[in-house]
Amino acid sequence: MTPTPSPLVPEQEAVLFEGNPALLPSLGSVLLAILTLGLALLVFWARSHGIRYRLTSQRIVVEYGLLSKRTEHIDIYRVVDYVVERPFSQRLMGTGNLRLRTMDKSAPELNIFGIKTDVPALYERLRQATEVERARRGVRTVDYE
After folding, report:
1. Per-residue model confidence as pLDDT tens for the chain (145 residues)
2. Beta sheet of 96-102, edge-to-edge order
3. What is the phi-psi region of residue 113: left when phi exceeds 0, alpha when psi lies from -120 to 50, beta otherwise?
4. Which 8-state DSSP code applies to residue 77?
5. What gap in Å lies between CA 35 and CA 18, rounded to an integer?
6. What is the rounded distance in angstroms from the CA atom of residue 7 to the CA atom of residue 54?
7. Which of 19, 54, 114, 121 has the most CB atoms within 10 Å of its CB?
8. 49: alpha, beta or left, given left = phi > 0 and alpha = psi -120 to 50?
């Protein structure tokens, strides 16, 4: 008789994306950096390094702050809707945004801005991971309209 895995033991967690927002996420930020002779780069650097995203097959972790840190964790099965945004100026720079609507009370909407990755492909991996995690946990969502 083979032992069955305990539902309390988590499956192997795979990292889907990890990183900071891009230093210059759009063409507008490049133009602003040029117009201010590079001074805007200090603000962009602080903003970029003040946020760290870690998206895995089981959770989304967002860490805010340069000196003081605040970390927000959202289980991926709680995500109910995804919006992929790739404005023209961001497409030129190879970045994009993800807006996530969740069932989480502390973060009903999570915005992941200016990430330098293939955002549509990341959306597909997140959507698939959400479905797998819901099935693994036996979670079902119902739409009320």
Report:
1. 544 554 555 578 999 999 999 999 999 999 999 999 999 999 999 999 999 999 999 999 999 999 999 999 999 999 999 999 999 999 999 999 999 999 999 889 999 999 999 999 999 999 999 999 999 999 887 777 6
2. 79-85, 96-102, 109-115
3. beta
4. G
5. 31
6. 24
7. 114
8. alpha
